[in-house]
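Chapter review: from sequence to fold.
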Amino acid sequence: MKKLAMSMAMVAVSITAAAQGPNIYFGLGTGFHSNQMKYSDLNETRFPTSENLNSGVLSLFAEIDFLPNHMLAVRPQFSYLRRGGTLKDIEKYEWTNTVKDCYYKLNSGFLDFRMPVLFQIGTDEFPVRPYVGVAPIVGFSTGGDIDMAIWGKNMAVAGYHLELNQANMASTYFAVAPMVGIKIHFPVRGLANACFLGLEASYEIGLTDTYGKEKDGDAVDVMGGAKYPLAGTRKFQGFELNATVGIPLHIAEKKVEPKPVAPAPVVVRPRPVVKKKACYTLEEIDDMINRRESVIGKTICAVDIINFDFNKATIKRESYPYLQRLAKTLTRTDAKVEVKGHTDNVGSDDYNMDLSRKRAKAVHDYLIRLGVNPNNLSYSYYGASQPLTDNDTEEGRTTNRRVEFEFKK
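The token string follows.
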């Protein structure tokens, strides 16, 4: 039966992962955007110099991570930034020796709705996760201005200034942005892997023509005062670097201790009283192995060391170092080891029995993933039927909520 249980446990690892619920985050992002105006029909002799418009970025987002190990994420977000650029050194008329500079400048604010889709590399066990993704973008112009000016050497200026609501520039903008990034998860309020800090780089590729037509459908030749029809298209493109912080939805949830439920009458066989030491620490077992003493019949009691999410069988991240040390110890001996799950008496017998089963199996499966020989591992569960001490105090209940590791022949 134990061999069958171990085989079924190994098969169930992927099923357990597939059943993980989604992680939902709310967050804030801030960063830097450098935008360039890209023209399809531009006379580079007349417009020899193009400068980017640099802008800050502020974003609010929600993120949903799902699939096994939360490898896929969708992050709807709103971002505010500025787009545009400057064409400089336009036809200086050097032969007149009167023009110092001539430029065209576009500066527009945008409110973007973005929908990044991210593929996250690695597993939930590791706090650092790189990712790649792509983000469709819909931008809405929130106003700005257009300047066309000639600065003479005598500081006289000629040209025009237009608010964007006076210019016939497209008010809606579509783009796509491939991206790469990395997340660093960290615990908050005792919750392992709770929040994350992220760093992300993307390159925006404009898909729609933002040039359109200027005032009255024509561009104004500031030098001659004439108007001329616009030709070609103008699209935006640019590099963006962002830092993000995400806070999970469940961090604000208040933990509610289950109300004690009167258990149904059951016959519980008391644990036999033996004179030998009931529990050993991992360090004591290591010392015995170093002295080449037998550890058969000894039991490691992990009291308040291996912790789980509230009312769940998900091992908390702060328990991983202890389990990694335990795995190294178990690989030093050929002894069979039985993982035993125990709970306190809060809740019904059936509930505690099922919870101890799930937690014992979770530890059993995690040790196998750490390299322990599955043929040497089994697990069992006892609910609240084998307490080490009474359950009348919180200290006693903490002691009874434990995982044991018994060495067998």
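Two observations follow directly from the output. The helical segments are 2-18, 282-290, 320-330, 349-369, 394-400. The longest strand covers residues 128-152.
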